[in-house]
C-alpha cells in the first residue's frame, strides 16, 4: 500500500476571472513535514483552501488517503481526518479556551472518554491552555491564540494537518516555540503540510518543500537542498550565504 497521504495533480482554481492556481501538482507522504513557500499572492493559502474544500477546483485532482476528495464537502473532508488550521487563527472570541477546543472536536469526537483523552494530550502539549481553559479566548496573547488554533485542530486527531502561516505576527521567541511544537507533533506521528512565509524556519523543519510563484510550482526539493539553493536564498531567505 502506498504511503502517500495527499496527492494533487494539475490543480487549477479561479477567483472570478483571476486564475489563482495554474496546474499545481504535489504530494505528501505519511510522517512527513512538507512546506509550501512563496511570496504573498503566490497561491499558498489558496492551495490549502482547495485541499480542504473551502474553494472548488476548476480542474485537476486531489486525493487523500487514496480517496478522490476534489469535489467533497469541507465537513466530509474533516471527518476523513484532514484538518486545516487557517491563517489568522480564527478562534472564537467570546468563548472560553475549553469551548473552542470542544468545537474543534464537534464533528469527529462523539465518545466522552476519547474527547477527554484528546483534551489531556492538548493540555500536555500546551500547558498554558490548561491554565486558561476557563478564560475567554479573546484575552489570550497572539502566541497563545496560535496554540489554541493548533490545539483545536488536533481535537480531531488528524491524519493530515494543514497549517497556514502559524508564525505570522509572532515575536521570534514565540516563532521558535511554535516550530518546536510542530516538530514534536510530527515526531509523534502527525503528517503536516505547512504554509509559511518564514522560509528559513520552514526549511529547517521540512522534509520536502515546494516553491510557488503566481500559482505555479517553480522549484521543489528536500528541505536541506532548498536551504542551499541560491535562488531560494536570494528570494526568500534574505540574501546570499
Structure summarized in a few sentences:
The protein is of the alpha/beta class. It has helices at 44-51, 74-80, 97-104, 112-125, 127-131, 142-154, 172-187, 199-205, 223-228, 230-236; strands at residues 4-15, 18-29, 33-37, 59-64, 67-68, 82-85, 160-164, 191-195, 208-213, 216-222. It has a domain at 4-92 and 158-236: Rossmann fold (3-Layer(aba) Sandwich).
Topology:
Blueprint: E1 4-15, E2 18-29, E3 33-37, H1 44-51, E4 59-64, E5 67-68, H2 74-80, E6 82-85, H3 97-104, H4 112-125, H5 127-131, H6 142-154, E7 160-164, H7 172-187, E8 191-195, H8 199-205, E9 208-213, E10 216-222, H9 223-228, H10 230-236
Parallel strand pairs: 3-8, 3-9, 6-7, 7-8
Antiparallel strand pairs: 1-2, 1-4, 4-5, 9-10
Helix pairs in contact: 3-6
Structure report:
This protein has 241 residues and is of the alpha/beta class. The protein has a domain at 4-92 and 158-236: 3-Layer(aba) Sandwich (Rossmann fold). It is built from 10 helices and 10 strands. The protein has helices at residues 44-51, 74-80, 97-104, 112-125, 127-131, 142-154, 172-187, 199-205, 223-228, 230-236; strands at 4-15, 18-29, 33-37, 59-64, 67-68, 82-85, 160-164, 191-195, 208-213, 216-222. The strands form 2 sheets. A 6-stranded mixed β-sheet has the order 6-7-8-3-9-10, sandwiched between helices. A 4-stranded antiparallel β-sheet has the order 2-1-4-5, with helices on one face. α3 packs parallel to α6. The longest helix has 16 residues, at 172-187.
Amino acid at each position: 500500500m502506498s504511503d502517500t497521504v495527499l496527492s494533487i495533480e494539475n490543480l487549477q482554481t479561479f477567483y472570478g476571472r483571476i486564475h489563482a492556481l495554474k496546474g499545481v501538482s504535489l504530494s505528501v507522504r505519511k510522517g512527513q513535514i512538507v512546506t509550501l513557500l512563496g511570496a504573498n499572492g503566490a497561491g499558498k493559502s489558496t492551495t490549502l483552501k482547495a485541499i480542504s474544500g473551502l474553494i472548488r477546483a476548476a480542474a485537476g485532482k486531489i486525493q487523500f488517503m487514496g480517496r478522490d476528495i476534489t469535489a467533497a464537502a469541507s465537513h466530509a473532508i474533516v471527518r476523513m481526518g484532514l484538518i486545516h488550521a487557517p491563517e489568522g487563527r480564527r478562534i472564537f472570541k467570546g468563548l472560553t479556551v475549553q469551548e473552542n477546543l470542544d468545537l474543534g472536536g464537534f464533528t469527529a469526537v462523539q465518545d466522552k472518554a476519547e474527547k477527554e483523552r484528546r483534551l489531556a494530550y492538548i493540555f500536555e502539549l500546551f500547558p498554558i491552555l490548561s491554565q486558561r481553559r476557563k478564560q475567554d479566548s479573546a484575552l489570550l496573547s497572539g502566541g497563545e491564540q496560535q496554540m489554541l488554533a493548533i490545539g483545536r485542530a488536533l481535537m480531531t486527531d488528524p491524519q493530515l494537518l494543514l497549517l497556514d502561516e502559524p508564525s505570522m505576527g509572532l515575536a521570534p521567541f514565540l516563532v521558535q516555540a511554535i516550530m518546536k511544537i510542530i516538530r514534536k507533533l510530527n515526531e509523534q506521528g502527525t503528517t503536516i503540510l505547512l504554509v509559511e512565509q518564514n522560509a528559513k524556519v520552514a526549511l529547517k523543519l521540512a522534509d520536502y518543500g515546494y516553491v510557488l510563484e503566481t500559482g505555479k510550482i517553480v522549484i521543489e526539493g528536500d528541505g536541506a537542498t532548498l536551504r542551499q539553493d541560491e535562488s531560494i536564498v536570494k528570494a526568500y531567505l534574505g540574501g546570499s550565504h
